[in-house]
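This section describes the prediction task in plain terms. A model, or a person checking by hand, is given the sequence of a single protein chain and must write out its three-dimensional structure as a string of tokens. No templates, partner chains or ligands are provided. The sample shown here is typical of the held-out split.
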Amino acid sequence: MFIQEVVRPYRGLPRSVYFLFVSKIVNSIGNFVMPFLAIFLTDRLGMREDQAGFFVMLASTAFVPGSLIGGKLADICGRKRVLVLFHGLSALCFIPCAFLGPSMLVTWLLVASSLFIGASNPAYTAMVTDLTDMGNRKQAFSLIYLGHNIGFALGPVIAGFLYRRFMPMIFIGDALTTFAALALVMLYIRETMPEDYKTEAENMQLNCNEKPEEGGLIPALLKRPVLLAFSFVAMIYSFVYSQCGFGLPLQINEIFALDGPRNYGVLASVNAVTVVLMTLIVTQRTSRLRPVFCIALGGLFYAIGFGMIFYLNSMYMFIISTIIWTIGEILVVTNTGVFIANNTPISHRGRFNAVIPIITGTGFAVGPLLTGKFLISHSIREIWPLCFYLAFGATMLMIMLNMAEKWAGRKEEQTAFITERE
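The expected answer:
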């Protein structure tokens, strides 16, 4: 009975959403390269921590122009075409890396891959939004996120094994699983971009924030001040979260030395397994809560989970910490996509899903660079109190946004009631 109750929110979703779910699992199983990027740059290429931080930031920043291009093309050419083209190009960049050895050319191919991934992401998110409405969107985004982590639960363990023994297979395996995932999209998912935005909006009875807008991106964004404010607060969240891919592996390497890559792979899998086990429960328990409130709650888990690392030395306690901040990740990730989708005009879904993640992801992009600079004069442990204060402060701001959104919703209801009576 308990399992049936927990799984119930995922029943009745559009068929294409389930294929996207399977495709995400396949792609994430082969997500070998990026989780080990910081270790690869310092261990295999011999970079200093600040140099590695620069290249990790560069790879993240390359996401920006790709996302802007892909978002515009997704609104003009279609979601499916853009997704298949650019995600396929990102996979092609990995293949030469398997044969180049410790060459700096590898870093530039990884930067190019990140650019192409950036171009494909807005199309993917717009596709999920096209296939859903406010009634089932939270469940759909939660399911896709779950699929990512089902695959990711296996990927880092495999990559951790291959890293020391068969390094080239990390790049080849990542490319092959990407191609397999794209094959599912090509064969089983139709193009979702509406032929006529106005007609589609009327047929789906979209809320006022999702109705099509005339003009460009900037005017449409300025009409949604709560969404803009949300984006800048979420930037702080993403800075804190970036430490699971930069500060955490460096901390693990410092404490466990040669066992560092293996232990970090274990933590990455703990992260993914926690998502697999807890996403169903968290989604079911928070289904009636507003997305912004859920994100604020996630910030508290970030503050505790990352902040406690300052005191840790045992692998057991690192696992506990990972479980705590992972629950925060579930709350933040599953609700962020829903909040953005519910405030995005149907005519600008590709562009909004390009620009908003760029703003929110700025913290993730500059996190490794700023942390690398910070580590020149501070110890790795000193990162974690900073993460605590940033996450806690962002949580307070998110609670204020939740109050502002409630007020705006009441005002909209009053206006609609008055208009209806007239």
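For orientation: Residues 414-422 have pLDDT under 50 and may be disordered.
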